[in-house]
Amino acid sequence: MTGGNSLPHFDPGSSILIDNALTSPDAAKPAFDLLSHLTPDSIVAVTYNQSADTFLRQWRSQVGTIPKFARVITVGRSMRSSATQLSQQNIVRPVKRLDDLTGVQSAVASALDNATDKTVLIFDSLTTPLTHVSPTEMISFFSFLSNHLTDTEAVGYFHITTRVSDATTVASIQSLADAIVERDEDDWLVRPSVEWISESLSADLLFDVLRSRQRREVLRYLLRATEPVSLDELTTTIAKRESGKQTINRNEYRRYYMSLSQKHLPRLDDVGFIEYDSPTSRILISKAAQHIEPFLTLAEELSER
């Protein structure tokens, strides 16, 4: 973990989550003191809590000269507050609705694709859209942007106020970021995020896999196991949990055994959540999936709505 009043230089393609750690309305605005070291050739900004004029004015005063390529995507603001003159200069891209993640996603992707050389994306608030969209929509949105940053070799800085956001959703987003920046008294601390399962595993696929209650139960049990589990032990445990019975009969056992061995375990193995040795019928959680707990909790909450 590193600390200080400015951020280190991150590798191209990185997604950096900045926790403002404040609860006031002004909390979810760019921490320009952290960004003062940046010297990008292009900037792309997404602003929910301030106008394009305000963002660019603060950039000039606290970071430096505005690069030749600059795009500011203002969300939920009228054209007047989005700076009509800047729009005519091809700088501002307005997105009218606060819940329009598709519009924001499209505008950001287009800007990153057209940016030149060293590019940074500044996202002034994930907290604001989280009050207008579902957790799964936000996680899928963040996953898309993270992947697009990798594709375009840009670096993204995403501000979030964790104290006023759902803890499970925040933990899920944090696990998708490359690094997390947090306030510690007068300094900022940088800590790496966890390694995730696979770059090819999208948020949509993740929640599709976790939609099944039986798969969630399997993963929860394996997360708490200290050694590989036999298929017999897993079958008996899952059958008892789902049926609510202390003992199960032969037919019930066979039904769960077939469901696990032929459907759910191969699926979890395919996406890299578990290591399933079919010949020996031994199962263990994969190393990468050790950090899947927040997604299990979130998937459980969503299934109950």
Could you explain the architecture of this structure?
The protein is α/β, with parallel strands linked by helices. It has helices at residues 52-62, 84-88, 101-114, 127-130, 135-152, 167-176, 203-210, 213-224, 231-243, 250-270, 293-303; strands at residues 2-4, 15-19, 42-47, 69-75, 92-95, 119-123, 155-160, 179-184, 187-192, 229-230, 274-277, 282-285. It folds into two domains: 2-193, Rossmann fold (3-Layer(aba) Sandwich); 204-303, Winged helix-like DNA-binding domain superfamily/Winged helix DNA-binding domain (Arc Repressor Mutant, subunit A, Orthogonal Bundle). Helix content is 42%, strand content 19%. Strand 11 (274-277) and strand 12 form a beta hairpin. It is elongated, with a radius of gyration of 22 Å. The model is unreliable at 23-28 (pLDDT under 50).
Topology (elements, then pairings):
Elements: E1 2-4, E2 15-19, E3 42-47, H1 52-62, E4 69-75, H2 84-88, E5 92-95, H3 101-114, E6 119-123, H4 127-130, H5 135-152, E7 155-160, H6 167-176, E8 179-184, E9 187-192, H7 203-210, H8 213-224, E10 229-230, H9 231-243, H10 250-270, E11 274-277, E12 282-285, H11 293-303
Parallel strand pairs: 2-7, 2-8, 3-4, 3-6, 4-5, 6-7
Antiparallel strand pairs: 1-9, 8-9, 10-12, 11-12
Helix pairs in contact: 3-5, 5-6, 6-11, 8-9, 9-10
